[in-house]
């Protein structure tokens, strides 16, 4: 009680004492309008930069004269992109933005397939706050505060503004990396109908979009209404659309021969000695089944279209299946988004506003039929205690009536029928996501105190619902029951267990293509579901006006308060919740959080027209939030910025911000949720005498020791299962953001603007997870003893054969995340007189550091991630465009640049260890020395540049209508990006995911 009272009292003091805040845009607009009336003559002789209300500062100025770095994209740039996805447009146009979840990188995701999110500064989607008209909106995923940009109708977007670094003082939690503000149309009148179609020149990737927009005034111009609707269909890109996807790659670097190798029908061979057609990467999950696949069985069987064959042993890479053929390069999606907004002026000093948005997004990710084998474990949770256990389908009993006599005659090892099979008769696995989003808000705003103060009060509500259904998984319990078959009294075949028969068990025949009966397929099929409901209520109020006039000008300020309640509920079907199926376990859970906030902002003119100082202005803001969670008490965010203009056209800007991010509901309360992340087992290849790092501790694992005793070497066959889990002990993370930059608009180059800004974002107590391979290393190769007292070892679970079957990924408040670098922005407008105008725009980002520091058994460890493709963080990125406007014509050439990278740091580290070991052998004069070891193949990735060309022409249809026809080519030179080992289809989504050259055309009619 004392703690609660103290928190509320502190919050009340904060509200009373803070006179600086979030939203005095209206007041600033009036000031600028009054100033503009006095400077009309000057503006006519020397055009001034366009003045707009910018995100983050709420001050009405251009992006080159704010304290915090800002970049913008206007309607024309959005139109000229030729893309239907707003997130793709932003990733293409802003170097500081990376893709979050998209249709080219979420193929393996359970929850986020079909989402369209962005990631600012590569700090995670959770740390990028996406706003619509400066307002928070409901999330589109229980994984975090993800706003899917595909829920916003394209025609509704007027411009996009990006402010990087510590905007929490203005907008609250989640703005650690910055803010993306989607600003909608506010004054457009008339009707627009637009249609767009496009496809790739190599086949696939077809898209079609139709937009309808209508705006008009009513009630003697006191009211304004705008409606927008977008329907967009993307047909996706399949494995068969790109020849590169059919290239099979199973790569390794041989540390004995010191050469790059690919797997072939005859095992791994040095790439220099073979051709690409020899490469193989195949699975034993054939459509007819593989049997007795074990080193103790000399004869191994499989089925093809001709029937039973006995030549499987040693021929998996010859007869197996290339599983990648079922993987989509880009997931198809249908979306419909609409929005309706009203503004009405009740009197000269009071007006109301209302907006509602509705979106329906459907995506369907088709994957391979389930590939199962006798020892494939499925996690099971006890419904009452939650205790975990495992179930597996088991071996086919030797007396199973379906076992062919030829297989029985082969004398199976231990009378076990080993098997592996792809269950095509059950059907392809389909991950079907249907999402519905409703957002609405309404409010009143006006002026008071003789029009000297503005006020605004509003309430918002958002609801998101996701229905996810996973078709054609397998119920492992039922598979085990159906494999245990016998002859019935009438000579037919039935399930041996009477209770299983009573529950509908149909015997399972795995021998041969198409051998599974429809009844058996129905019995073993599982269609788990996940239903997510998220709601948000938001109440916001503020006042803004002039506080006091200083010699350098008027101090303007605002203060206000905000209340928000976020709640979510994740409900899963029984088999999804308690397991026992060939899919991730996702328990049901729910949670809610309430937060009360007070905020303020002020602009303080300090010096004006003094020697050496044309102007010096300070911007200050603060925000205090009281969360309902006990671990997250009152959270304070604040910002201090300066703009120093020594002479006309030149300015220095500096900004310090303290930003906070509270943990999400899922990060706090979620039980372990299934997920898969690839990792390499440090214990792979351990023998009784191996001396690799950590192998001494690996041999202490009883299961690994047993394998070594029986077979001489342990070879890991992990399934990459790595469930995520919340942590109720989490608290808020804190970020300190520093920016320092200069802006220039030299008078001797009319129309040129240039900005250079340094940024440094340091997040302490960052909410994150430790990488799987770091967990493995800390368990087996650290100063701490191996065993249950080592917390990292407790997160690793192995089966009886030593294979890692689970690494638990828990969320922690890690020590630090840090990213720093600099941005360069340039804009230049050149008047060609009667031939129109040229506009040049360029933005570049250079990352100096992007690291994570966390506590280990050996002290603090720092991992650097920049310049590594496996983390998708480019050291250098740039975007440039040149647009020519002439009467009704607009032509734009744009270029996107991504700097060079390395493919994998862990592979590079392993290679360096191999080089050192080889050098030692050479220095010792050993015969195994390799004089000229090969460099790593596919490790050094060169820079990536693409070029786009668009053109449009607008002409009058009659006095009140016109038409714009447009078209273009994205990726003009069809740059498919580097050949990426392990990438989907040997592509990487950071390089377009294999889309390549994309051609589009469309038309827009306005009346």
Pick out its properties.
44% strand, globular, single chain, 53 strands, mainly beta
The number of helical elements comes to 17
Q: Give the beta-strand count.
A: 53
Query: How confident is the prediction overall: mean pLDDT?
Result: 88
Query: Structural class of the secondary elements?
Result: mainly beta
Beta strand %:
35-45%
Give helix % range. 10-25%
In whole angstroms, the N-to-C terminal distance is 63 Å
Main pleated sheet: 22 strands, antiparallel, barrel
Shape: globular
Radius of gyration: 31 Å
- Ranges where pLDDT stays below 50 over 5 or more residues in a row are 1-65
Structural write-up:
This protein is 13% helix and 44% strand. The chain contains 17 helices and 53 strands. The strands form 13 sheets. It has a 22-stranded antiparallel β-barrel. A five-stranded antiparallel beta sheet has the order 17-16-15-23-20, with no helix packed on it. A four-stranded mixed beta sheet has the order 3-7-8-6. It is globular, with a radius of gyration of 31 Å.
């Amino acid at each position: 009680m004392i703690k609660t009272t103290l928190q509320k009292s502190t919050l009340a003091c904060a509200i009373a004492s803070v006179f600086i805040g979030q939203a005095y845009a209206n007041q600033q607009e009036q000031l600028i309008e009054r100033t503009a009336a006095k400077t009309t003559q000057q503006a006519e002789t020397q055009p001034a930069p366009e003045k707009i209300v910018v995100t983050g500062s709420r001050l009405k100025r251009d992006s080159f004269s704010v304290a915090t770095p800002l970049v913008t994209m206007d309607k024309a740039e959005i139109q000229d992109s030729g893309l239907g996805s707003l997130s793709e447009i932003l990733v293409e146009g802003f170097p500081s933005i990376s893709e979050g979840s998209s249709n080219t990188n979420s193929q393996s995701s359970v929850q986020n397939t079909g989402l369209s999110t962005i990631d600012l500064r590569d700090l995670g989607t959770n740390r990028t706050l996406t706003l619509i008209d400066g307002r928070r909106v409901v999330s589109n995923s229980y994984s975090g505060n993800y706003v899917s940009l595909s829920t916003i109708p394209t025609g509704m977007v007027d411009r996009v503004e990006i402010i990087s670094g510590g905007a929490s003082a203005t907008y609250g939690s989640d703005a650690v990396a910055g803010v993306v503000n989607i600003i909608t149309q506010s004054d457009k009148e008339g009707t627009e109908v637009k249609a767009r179609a496009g496809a790739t020149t190599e086949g696939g990737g077809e898209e079609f979009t139709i937009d309808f927009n209508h705006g008009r005034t009513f009630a003697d111009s006191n009211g304004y209404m705008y409606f927008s609707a977008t329907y967009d269909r993307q047909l996706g890109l399949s494995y068969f659309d790109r020849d590169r996807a059919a290239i099979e790659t199973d790569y390794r670097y041989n540390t004995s021969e010191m050469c790059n190798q690919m797997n072939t029908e005859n095992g791994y061979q040095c790439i220099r000695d073979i051709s690409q057609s020899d490469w193989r990467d195949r699975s034993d999950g054939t459509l007819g089944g593989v049997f007795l696949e074990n080193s103790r069985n000399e004869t191994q069987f499989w089925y093809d279209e001709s029937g039973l064959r006995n030549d499987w042993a040693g021929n998996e890479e010859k007869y197996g299946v290339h599983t990648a053929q079922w993987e989509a390069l880009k997931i198809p999606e249908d979306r419909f988004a609409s929005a309706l907004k009203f503004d009405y002026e009740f009197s000269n000093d009071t007006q109301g506003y209302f907006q509602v948005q509705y979106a329906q997004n459907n995506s369907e990710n088709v994957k391979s039929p389930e590939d199962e084998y006798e020892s494939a474990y499925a996690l099971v949770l006890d419904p009452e205690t939650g205790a975990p256990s495992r179930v597996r389908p088991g071996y086919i009993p030797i007396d199973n009536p379906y076992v062919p006599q030829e297989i029985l005659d082969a004398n199976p090892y231990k009378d076990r029928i080993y098997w592996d099979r792809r269950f095509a008769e059950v059907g392809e696995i389909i991950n079907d996501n249907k999402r519905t989003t409703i957002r609405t808000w309404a409010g009143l705003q006006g002026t008071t105190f003789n029009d000297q103060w503005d006020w605004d009060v509003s309430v918002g509500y958002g609801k998101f619902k996701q229905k996810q259904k996973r078709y054609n998984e397998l119920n492992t319990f039922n598979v085990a029951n159906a494999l245990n078959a016998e002859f019935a009294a009438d000579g037919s075949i039935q399930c041996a267990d009477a209770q299983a028969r009573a529950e509908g068990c149909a015997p399972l025949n795995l021998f041969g293509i198409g051998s599974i009966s429809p009844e058996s397929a129905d019995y073993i099929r599982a269609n788990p579901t996940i239903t997510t409901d998220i709601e948000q209520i938001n109440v916001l109020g503020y006042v803004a006006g002039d506080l006091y006039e200083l010699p350098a000008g008027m101090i303007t300020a605002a203060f206000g308060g905000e209340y928000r309640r976020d709640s979510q509920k994740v409900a899963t079907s029984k088999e999804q919740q308690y397991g026992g199926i060939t899919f991730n376990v996702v328990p049901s859970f729910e949670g809610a959080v309430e937060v009360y906030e007070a905020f303020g902002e002020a602009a303080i003119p300090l010096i004006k027209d003094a020697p050496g100082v044309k102007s010096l202005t300070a911007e200050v803001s603060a925000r205090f939030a009281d969360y309902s969670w006990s671990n997250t008490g009152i959270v304070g965010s604040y910002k201090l910025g300066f703009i120093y203009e020594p002479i006309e056209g030149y300015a220095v800007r500096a900004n310090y911000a303290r930003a906070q991010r509270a943990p999400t509901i899922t990060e706090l309360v979620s039980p372990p949720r299934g997920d898969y992340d690839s990792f390499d087992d440090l214990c792979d290849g351990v023998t009784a005498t191996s001396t690799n790092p950590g192998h001494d501790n690996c041999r202490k694992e009883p299961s690994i020791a047993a394998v070594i005793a029986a077979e001489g070497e342990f070879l890991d066959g992990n399934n990459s299962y790595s469930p995520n889990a919340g942590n109720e002990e989490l608290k808020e993370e804190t970020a300190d953001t520093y920016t320092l930059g200069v802006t220039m608009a030299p008078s001797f180059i009319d129309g040129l603007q240039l900005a250079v800004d340094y940024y440094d974002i340091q997040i302490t107590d960052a909410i994150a997870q430790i990488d799987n391979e770091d967990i493995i290393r800390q368990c087996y190769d650290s100063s701490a003893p191996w065993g249950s007292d080592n917390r990292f070892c407790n997160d690793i679970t192995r089966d009886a054969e030593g294979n890692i079957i689970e690494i638990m990924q828990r969320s922690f408040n890690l020590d630090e995340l840090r990213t720093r670098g600099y941005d360069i922005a340039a804009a230049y407008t050149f008047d060609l007189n009667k031939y129109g105008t040229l506009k040049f725009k360029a933005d570049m980002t250079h990352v100096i550091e992007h690291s994570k520091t966390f506590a280990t058994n050996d002290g603090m460890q720092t991992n650097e991630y920049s310049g590594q493709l496996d983390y998708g963080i480019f050291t250098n990125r740039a975007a440039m465009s040149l647009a020519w406007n002439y009467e009704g014509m607009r032509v734009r050439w744009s270029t996107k640049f991504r700097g060079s990278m390395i493919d994998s740091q862990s592979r590079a580290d392993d290679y360096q260890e191999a080089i050192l070991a080889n050098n030692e052998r050479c220095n010792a004069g050993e015969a195994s020395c390799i004089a000229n070891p090969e460099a790593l193949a596919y490790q050094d990735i060169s820079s990536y540049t693409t070029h786009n060309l668009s053109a449009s022409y607008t002409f009058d249809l009659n006095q009140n209508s016109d038409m714009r026809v447009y078209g273009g080519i994205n990726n003009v030179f069809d740059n498919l990006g580097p050949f990426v080992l392990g990438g989907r289809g040997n592509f990487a989504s950071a390089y377009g995911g294999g889309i390549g050259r994309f051609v589009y055309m469309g038309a827009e009619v306005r009346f």
